[in-house]
């Protein structure tokens, strides 16, 4: 079994900030069960497509989900989302190592 590489400080900040929202946690949980389309995911989560799109963009920017376009039988382009495999070992030592790699821009965002 291959061990996951340690995240940089910037990566850790980006992922933890992204996952700090309960809607985004629910999106990850739903997509880990089954990859799906935006409309179907919005219905299953009970949120609007517009709100879901906001959260999906943030999850995609953090590298936690990815999307691909598929064409339905009636010719409509539909965005299909899935979770990217990720794992972070979150220990005090891992945080200390990540802190040493923070860029000046991230260090200033407190």
Describe the structure.
- The protein is α+β, with helices and mostly antiparallel strands.
- The chain has a single domain, classed as Orthogonal Bundle (Arc Repressor Mutant, subunit A), CATH 1.10.10.10.
- Helix content is 51%, strand content 15%.
- The chain is built from 6 helices and 3 strands; from the N terminus they run H-H-E-H-H-E-E-H-H.
- Strands 1-3-2 form a 3-stranded antiparallel β-sheet.
- A hairpin with a 5-residue loop joins strand 2 (65-71) and strand 3.
- Helix 2 crosses helix 4 (49-61).
- The longest helix is centred in the middle third of the chain and has 13 residues, at 49-61.
- The chain is elongated.
- The termini are far apart.
- The model has no long low-confidence stretch (mean pLDDT 90).
Structure keywords:
110 residues; alpha+beta; Arc Repressor Mutant, subunit A; three-stranded antiparallel sheet; 3 strands; elongated; HTH_ArsR_DNA-bd_dom; transcription regulation; DNA binding
Q: Tell me, what's the shape?
A: elongated
The value of Rg in angstroms is 16 Å
Q: Can you identify the CATH superfamily? A: Winged helix-like DNA-binding domain superfamily/Winged helix DNA-binding domain
Distance between the termini: 36 Å
Helix content: 40-55%
Number of helices: 6
The total number of structural domains is 1
| Poorly predicted spans | none
Beta fraction: 5-15%
Order of helices and strands: HHEHHEEHH
Average pLDDT, rounded to a whole number, is: 90
CATH top level is: Mainly Alpha
Strand order within the widest beta sheet = 1-3-2
CATH architecture: Orthogonal Bundle
**Could you give the count of β-strands?**
3
Largest sheet, in brief, is: 3 strands, antiparallel
CATH topology: Arc Repressor Mutant, subunit A
InterPro entries: ArsR-like_HTH (IPR011991), HTH_ArsR_DNA-bd_dom (IPR001845), HTH_MetalResp_TranReg (IPR051081), WH-like_DNA-bd_sf (IPR036388), WH_DNA-bd_sf (IPR036390)
Keywords: DNA-binding, Transcription, Transcription regulation
Domain HTH arsR-type: 4-98
Pfam families: HTH_5
